Each structure stands twice: as C-alpha cells, then as structure tokens.
C-alpha cells in the first residue's frame, strides 16, 4: 500500500524532482490530459469527481508517509488542478501549453479562496482543493483567451 500511495502522490516519481516539483508534476499531467480530452465533456467532468476524491485520499496518506504537511513531493494535486484547467479545452498544443502556464500562475499566486483553503483545510483536502480552485480560475481565463486568440 505504501508504494501505491507514493507512486500516485508523486505522480510516478515526478514529485522527487529536486527543483520545481509542482511544475514537473504539472508537465507530467499533460499526457493524461491528452488521453482524456477525447472524452465528451460530460464524461470528462464526471471523471474529475472520483479523480479529485482519489487525489485527496492519496494526498492525505502521503502526508502521513512523508511526515510533512503538503509535502513538495506530493504532486497529484497539480495533476488534478491541470485537468480542471483543461476542462472543455479542445485538443491543441497551444491550448495545452497556455493551460499549463495559467495553472502554474494561479497555483503559485493562490488567489482567494485558494489561499484560505491552503491555510485552513487539513490533510489531503487542503493539499488538493486549493489546486482545484487554481484550476477553475485558469480554466475560465484559458477559455476567454482561446476565444480571442
């Protein structure tokens, strides 16, 4: 079970990157998006629910294993945040790259209520849900930008 948790929490080991593990974890989420983007949007959105719950559970278990609150090794939250960012975005490298940068911006800046969630929620919920909020902000802006570009 320990290996299973570490494998998913670090998103196949990308969380062990010595620099910018969140950025590396987000980059490693792009192939999953490329697989899921072909789903009809209702199925994509429905799939986000169990994936988010799974990520919260895995993140909570990983905090215990790593003995750290919101350890930098845990990057499955970036994966979920990126998938939220890309909801409804048509397949294109430009969209995927712009989504990547927008998500990283909002994840780092932590626009309210993401900063409140990050500070107040405990366990895996706090680890993941601030990234979901960042993903929502990034998704809205990405859709607006793709309309004008």
What's the layout of helices and strands?
Elements (H helix, E strand, L loop, with lengths): L1 H8 L11 H7 L2 H7 L4 H26 L9 H10 L7 H17 L4 H7 L2 H26 L1
Helix pairs in contact: 1-4, 2-5, 4-5, 4-8, 5-6, 5-8, 6-8, 7-8
Summarize the structure in words:
It is globular and about 45 Å long. With 149 residues, it is mostly helical. The chain contains eight helices and no strands. The longest helix has 26 residues, at 41-66.
Structural class designation: mainly alpha
How many strands, what sense, and barrel or not for the largest sheet? none
Taken from the alpha-carbon principal axes, the silhouette is globular
Q: Rounded to an integer, what's the Rg over CA atoms?
A: 14 Å
Query: How many strands appear in the DSSP assignment?
Result: 0
Total of helices: 8
Question: H/E element string?
Answer: HHHHHHHH
On the 0-100 scale, what is the average pLDDT? 97
Which regions contain 5 or more consecutive residues with pLDDT less than 50? none
Helix content percent band:
over 70%
Q: What fraction of the residues are assigned to beta strands by DSSP?
A: under 5%
| CA(first)-CA(last) distance | 46 Å
List the defining traits of the structure above.
149 residues; mainly alpha
Q: What's the quick description here?
A:
With 149 residues, the chain is mainly α. 72% of the residues lie in helices and 0% in strands.
